[in-house]
Amino acid sequence: xxxxxxxxxxxxxxxxxxxxxxxxxxxxxxxxxxxxxxxxxxxxxxxxxxxxxxxxxxxxxxxxxx
Length: 66
Fold this sequence. Notes:
The chain has helices spanning 16-20, 52-56, and strands at 3-6, 26-30, 37-41, 62-65. It is α+β, with helices and mostly antiparallel strands. The chain has one domain: Alpha-Beta Plaits, CATH 3.30.70.20. The strands form 2 sheets. Strands 1-4 form a two-stranded antiparallel sheet. A two-stranded antiparallel ribbon has the order 2-3. Strand 2 (26-30) and strand 3 form a beta hairpin. The longest helix has 5 residues, at 16-20. It is globular and about 30 Å long. The relative contact order is 0.37. The mean pLDDT is 98.
């Protein structure tokens, strides 16, 4: 099983992950306890492990574990 995690302390909510993910794993939204919007995993099971999000995240906030 694939696990997609976003380090909310690193994420700046830029939306790159949303833009590059071909299967809509992420959504940008408000997260309790954090200022501004963050990337949130909304459909982990859809992940096809292309790693586009992980590679293109400038904040290195996304980790994919197989």
